[in-house]
Design goal:
Length: 189
């Protein structure tokens, strides 16, 4: 069975832990220690093929760039989360994406790998990513519209879902889409 390492990133409080726990355990954890970072394992069947997912729910290491890059390097796929009720978290999406691309395009990816992927040596590999706009159950407090999310997704070329960890909307779908994205790269990253 293939094994994929998935890293959940995004600003503090956007719901990374709740999305992860909803996906792994099928429950909404009302409060989860924001400083705790944890790993989970879950087996899934996507398009009739099984995969083992190692999920890393990152927490509060925004200050430690080097530490963060270690995670980014180890991930095969990434879920970048923002909170639809907090515009600042939406505005940070692009910088998370850029950090992930930088981390995955470091020295050790050689020209041969890029060639195998149909890329020129100076072209960046775009790692598998999915963007999730969480907390859509809080519709009255929305600061980021669905349309804005879709425009960002189009501009960055990353699949996008609006979700709620609380009411369990599009949680599984987001992870499944990421598995599909990972498979498309043929496990090179
Ligand atoms: P993290 O710091 O990104 O891991 O965020 P958490 O998962 O700890 O969630 C931060 C806060 O947002 C907690 O109080 C959660 O209960 C709440 N929360 C997370 N997801 C949702 C959601 O989909 N809807 C609502 N209403 N609250 C959420
Ligand atoms: Mg957390």
């Amino acid at each position: 069975m293939s094994r994929h390492s998935i890293v959940i990133v995004g600003e503090g409080g956007v719901g990374k832990s709740c999305l992860t726990l909803q996906f792994v355990h099928g429950k909404f954890a009302e409060s989860y220690d924001p400083t705790v970072e944890d790993s989970y394992r879950k087996q899934v069947t996507v398009d009739k093929k099984q995969a083992m997912l190692d999920i890393c729910d990152t927490a509060g290491q925004e200050m430690y760039a080097a530490y963060q890059d270690q995670y980014y390097k180890s991930g095969n796929g990434f879920i970048i989360v923002y909170n639809v009720t907090d515009r600042m978290t939406f505005e940070r999406i692009k910088s998370y994406r850029d950090r992930i691309i930088r981390a995955k395009n470091s020295e050790e990816i050689d020209a041969k790998t890029k060639k195998a992927m149909g890329l020129e040596p100076d072209q960046d590999i775009i790692p598998p990513m999915v963007v999730v706009g969480n907390k859509i159950d809080l519709d009255n407090s929305r600061q980021v519209s669905t349309q804005e999310g879709q425009n960002m997704s189009k501009e960055l070329g990353i699949p996008f879902f609006e979700a709620s960890a609380k009411t369990n909307v599009n949680v599984t779908e987001s992870f499944i889409e990421l598995v599909r994205q990972i498979r498309k790269t043929g496990g090179v990253l």
